[in-house]
Amino acid sequence: MIIILKKDFEERQMTNLTDWLKSNRLDVHVSKGVNQTILGLVGDTSTVDIDLIRGLDIVEDVKRIQEPFKNANRKFHPADTIVELPGGIKIGGGNFQFMAGPCSVESVEQICLIARKVKESGANILRGGAFKPRTSPYAFQGLRDQGIEFLLEAKRQTGLLLVTEIMDASQLPLFKEIDIIQVGARNMQNFELLKELSHLRKPILLKRGLANTLEELLMSAEYLLAGGNEQVILCERGIRTFETATRNTLDISAVPMLKFMSHLPVIVDPSHATGIARLVKPLSLASAAAGADGLIIEVHNNPPCALCDGKQSLTFETFNEVATAVRNILPHCCR
Amino acid sequence: MIIILKKDFEERQMTNLTDWLKSNRLDVHVSKGVNQTILGLVGDTSTVDIDLIRGLDIVEDVKRIQEPFKNANRKFHPADTIVELPGGIKIGGGNFQFMAGPCSVESVEQICLIARKVKESGANILRGGAFKPRTSPYAFQGLRDQGIEFLLEAKRQTGLLLVTEIMDASQLPLFKEIDIIQVGARNMQNFELLKELSHLRKPILLKRGLANTLEELLMSAEYLLAGGNEQVILCERGIRTFETATRNTLDISAVPMLKFMSHLPVIVDPSHATGIARLVKPLSLASAAAGADGLIIEVHNNPPCALCDGKQSLTFETFNEVATAVRNILPHCCR
Amino acid sequence: MIIILKKDFEERQMTNLTDWLKSNRLDVHVSKGVNQTILGLVGDTSTVDIDLIRGLDIVEDVKRIQEPFKNANRKFHPADTIVELPGGIKIGGGNFQFMAGPCSVESVEQICLIARKVKESGANILRGGAFKPRTSPYAFQGLRDQGIEFLLEAKRQTGLLLVTEIMDASQLPLFKEIDIIQVGARNMQNFELLKELSHLRKPILLKRGLANTLEELLMSAEYLLAGGNEQVILCERGIRTFETATRNTLDISAVPMLKFMSHLPVIVDPSHATGIARLVKPLSLASAAAGADGLIIEVHNNPPCALCDGKQSLTFETFNEVATAVRNILPHCCR
Amino acid sequence: MIIILKKDFEERQMTNLTDWLKSNRLDVHVSKGVNQTILGLVGDTSTVDIDLIRGLDIVEDVKRIQEPFKNANRKFHPADTIVELPGGIKIGGGNFQFMAGPCSVESVEQICLIARKVKESGANILRGGAFKPRTSPYAFQGLRDQGIEFLLEAKRQTGLLLVTEIMDASQLPLFKEIDIIQVGARNMQNFELLKELSHLRKPILLKRGLANTLEELLMSAEYLLAGGNEQVILCERGIRTFETATRNTLDISAVPMLKFMSHLPVIVDPSHATGIARLVKPLSLASAAAGADGLIIEVHNNPPCALCDGKQSLTFETFNEVATAVRNILPHCCR
Fold first, then answer.
1. Of B106, B120, B131, D253, which is the most exposed, with the fewest CB atoms less than 10 Å away?
2. Which comes out higher in pLDDT, residue B25 or C277?
3. What 3-state DSSP class applies to D42?
4. Strands A37-42, A27-32: parallel, antiparallel or unpaired by DSSP?
């Protein structure tokens, strides 16, 4: 961390600051120039509150050099984290997984049918929304408790693992038999929820917020890791930009950048990233090519009638085609 | 709402669609062209699930004409909503209020001192964070329960009303004597929280999310209004753009646009919008000039030592100067 | 095109409008509702000035259904455009090309060395900047005329085709022997330049502007096509977003979307998209996987000493590795 | 400027680097830590090519502390620049001006009528487009040479000064009697054009690009200033964001930030910033309140029939109302 001091500070103020920094177990190197004095901080600065220092009277600016996340940082944990799921299913460290299923759970018949079909095409994990965050209070809000029950029935029938979204910590008792708890994009910075989930020892699928930087995503992962839950899967699902041809803009660079910055597995959601079914295949191939550890894809028995997001859901046939194409490209991908 | 059908649909499919639309109490007008058939829907389309229709097999595209929010819509409620607070304090409909105070409550002495000072400068409402959403798990997270107690003590000593942020519905019991409950930018689309707050009969200060459109802000307000809580104050606090000279970009057009779209009062937070104390005065004047109904400003007894956001806090003297300048400009502002 | 009329218009105004529209060879279908009257326009609306209609007194809003570009539109030209270059080199319609070379031409030795090396690795086209758009007036502005001469020497020595950037129409006489003229991102909407280039019968590489939509990119291509130059190659090179971990955000969805919207070939510049050499390989693979028709990659004999953009340039070895990996993945890609 | 070296560099490499930096008249201060070595550069670093250093083998990162613009920097020119125009008209340093007129010059009668009317309402400068940058090749492109002639006729009849946009340096001979040459948003980084204009001794109105930072705007101003043209007026006209309720997002913070960073006058274009006539009044008041030195506003004799941008043009009556309101608020504004 670099601290640039204002011109005309008093010697005493600088001494106070350097003493305080040293008491935080940091080495301080002072460079005095004619126009500027700069303090170079050496040591573990990840827990230093940068806003606090920036607010000091004698400080003109502070620039981080070290990243503010430590547990999620690849520099301190060079080896890939591999999330291990029941039945020997793994994500990360060279293990690629398909998660597939409908946007919303609609009925027990629907979810069980979809489960069987996506399993046939090679998915090991079933997705399906029971609690649905919807922009409009008038839109379908999910089957909630009943949706969870239907998912569990699909698990019993097919043996697929389950991933589904939590919207509030009060719903946690319902998630006991859910294998991966999803934190949605809108809740990526719901810190109270993250703190609760950090006490679990269960994999969390953490989706990037629509307007959140990669560093912020890793800081939210850090909430989970700092609380002791090390089973975190990151998910790129599109960010909000000025472009309107697609619902969001898939930030494909996030895949190799996150894997460079962090040891956590990274998957991609090509369905939400653009909202257009036709783009799921090229973006799935691109995500695999860029080094993703998995895909989470919306599949529906009857996309045009899906209670939400029908436009972006694949049919069984198309999902099978996508999964096959991805498996074929995997040996030639970046990893 | 306009539905554009794909070429080559079957007559039977269109009949099914128009019948279904009519059963939703909508009039359907069909325009058949050589290349395109268009359905014009007339009636209350605000509760129609646009994604559902977009997903239908014969539909190429759907375009809204009517806004999807109804309770928040000025078209149906032409008169300004005036939020009425204890002691005859009002916001909206020509009533302008200053909310001021520290980013975080730090001690009972601090918050009481700041309360007295901002009251002297004309603020009727004290702000101060007890529960703090922080990007880093290592940053100060607020005094929480104790912070609320200290705020209540400041209220007892000064008679100021209180506004403070809630982060989770489980904290609600602590907010009984809080006059305005703030929903922060990161929780604007925490729909479970919004549903809980919609059952209250207490003013809600709803901050715009960093990457949320004005329509989405009004849809979140609609969650509150649809649940029966009509006391909603909207707050523009800067959006996330590519510009890095300021922390966020204050969307000043949001003030007149929101007042055109909706009857709800609109205030501005110039402190968070830019993160730079020096900009608070020009942006406060600009916000008033554009027609805002109030300002929420960070003020601290000792800004350089503030436990968070010191860089953007005003001193007592500067806040007094800003409040005076705003009062002087008010008679010449847009309203 | 859909025209939504304001309430309370006069019958005579509507008759004037529909008469005028019909005189533009458009069929007009009127849907009258209780609250709204809607005009559906059928025919070729791509040349209708939407702003003109939007400004009319009785018009509330206008919504396009047809795209405003015609020559670039795949709907009217279903077959892929294949750009044919000297020596039988083709781009598009299943033909994939590597363009490679330094950001700036620095000397005749440098550019000839790089040319030989990238040819060995499979590139058919040499890139290299002679005229350099630089944010700072104090940064290196390119060798200009001399840079073009050095490029031509490299062409003589290696037989590689040349692509280089033009910054102003007055430079055109220097571009006679250049095989592909590049219009840079900052000039994508330099309409005077586009008009000049539309009179040529030489391939144009049109880069997407940092803040331009796909529709705007196609409208700029339309300037070229409408003037008679049908040899246009589109290039995605990253857009500007809030994310700062990469210099720009590569919009990978642009590849399949542009190919869906248009018949023109689409290539990707992974070097400028992120500014980070380490990301060029994963993004090159991702671009090919998503269906791109080629790549334009920065390669330098000594990246750390490049006069500009060294950080994003590949060494000869790395470029060879990337080119090999891309060739291996091509048979499994989306096309 | 701060240079952070990679771990494990060789001593000889660092000596080479520091020697080279010193030969550029910079003082170099070295801070060696256990994990990191940092070089602090003191002196005039504005002409140092940051990309060059960033590309060096032993450099991990470079961070600027000093701004890269010097002539435009308020630190080195504390006093406001006042642009002086014929007839004693001034902009900046407390002098506020209205520029008003149509988007496009349509006929000599139209422009002369508008000129008389905006003069009556207090404008000293007439705007009007002769050369029009239009996204679509099928939209009206301006009257070009003839448009300039009509503007000059309006100047003869009313004595108003003229501001109009140049699109290419080849048009310069037509601009001899134009008082202020406008560089449009799309040409803000047309560096060849900027270099040509830097040789003039005539005021330039430099509009901010849709996706350009304030620093980039000042770097483009630096092109003009470095070439010797000191008469530069900056113009904020809205940036591109995800928000679609307005055409662009007016970055009101740009006004006080630019005036803090630079000594150049700053005006605002509220018409293009949002594209909505109804918002021009509140945004004009807000701009003045925030400290702008002037406004450039679209006014048309018959807005619904304007050949372009009718939706955002004011009538004579509305412009008179806006100008009066702004004059009334000016004494209470930030300056």
1. B120
2. C277
3. strand
4. antiparallel
Give the pLDDT band (50/70/90) at residue D50: confident
Which residues of chain B from 171 to 210 reach within 8 Å of chain A, CB to CB? 186-187, 189-193, 209-210
Q: Closest residue of C to A279, CA-based?
A: C256
Q: How far apart (Å, rounded) are the C-alpha atoms in residues C306 and C299?
A: 10
ipTM: 0.90
State residue C226's pLDDT score.
93
Query: Distance between CA D312 and CA D308 in Å, rounded?
Result: 9
Kindly report the average pLDDT of chain B as a whole number: 91
pLDDT for A26-71, tens place per residue?
A: 888 787 766 678 787 777 777 677 777 877 778 888 877 778 888 9
For the entire predicted model, the pTM comes to 0.90
Average pLDDT, whole number, for chain A? 91
Assess contact for B334 and B290: CB atoms under 8 A.
Answer: yes
Range with the largest mean pLDDT of A134-148, B23-37, C174-188? C174-188
**Substitution target from C30, C46, C65, C240 for chain B, most B beta carbons within 10 A:** C65
Other beta carbons less than 10 A from residue D153's beta carbon: 15
Residue B251's closest CA among A244, D245, D297? Answer: D245
Low-confidence stretches of chain C (pLDDT beneath 70):
33-35, 47, 304-310
In DSSP terms, A18 is beta-bridged to none
Report the C-alpha gap between B309 and B329 in whole angstroms: 28
Which among A38, A21, A26, A1 has a CA at the least distance from the CA of D30? A38
Q: Give the distance between the most distant pair of CA atoms in chain C.
A: 76
Percent of chain D as helix, strand, coil, to the nearest 5: 40, 20, 40
For D20-49, give one letter per residue: b (16+ CB within 10 A) or e: ebeeeebebbebeeeebbbbbbbbebbebb
Strands (E) located in chain D: 2-5, 27-32, 37-42, 59-63, 83-85, 89-91, 97-101, 125-127, 161-166, 180-183, 204-207, 232-236, 266-268, 294-298
Half-sphere exposure (CA, 13 Å, Cβ side) for C229?
Answer: 23
d(CA C197, CA A194): 55
Does D307 reach chain C within 8 Å, measured CB to CB?
Answer: yes
Residue reference for tokens 């925490």: B190
Q: CB A25: neighbour CB atoms within 10 A? A: 9
Q: Does B15 touch chain A (CB under 8 A)?
A: no
Query: Which residues, in sequence order, are CB contacts of C30 under 8 Å at separation 6+?
Result: B31, C14, C18, C37, C38, C39, C40
Say if residue B306's pLDDT is above 80: no
Distance from CA of D181 to the nearest CA of B (A): 26
Place of tokens 């509140």: D282
Beta strand B27-32 with B37-42: parallel, antiparallel or unpaired?
Answer: antiparallel
- What digits encode the pLDDT tens for the residues A227-261? 999 999 999 999 999 999 999 999 999 999 999 99
> For residues A171 and A183, what is the distance between their CA atoms, to the nearest angstrom?
12
B199 or D313: which carries more pLDDT confidence? B199
| DSSP character at residue D184 | P
Task: Answer for the pair D203, D231: CB distance below 8 angstroms, yes or no.
Answer: yes
Contact A65 D61 (CB under 8 A): yes
- The overall longest dimension of chain A from CA atoms, in Å, is 76
Mean pLDDT taken over chain D: 91
Question: How large is the C-alpha radius of gyration of chain B?
Answer: 23
**pLDDT-above-70 percentage for chain B:** 96
In chain B, residues with a C-beta closer than 8 Å to the C-beta of D68 are none
**Which of D259, D287, D289 is closest to B328 using CA atoms?**
D289
Find chains touching chain C: ≥3 CB pairs under 8 Å: A, B, D
Inter-residue contact B169 to A168 (CB < 8 Å): yes
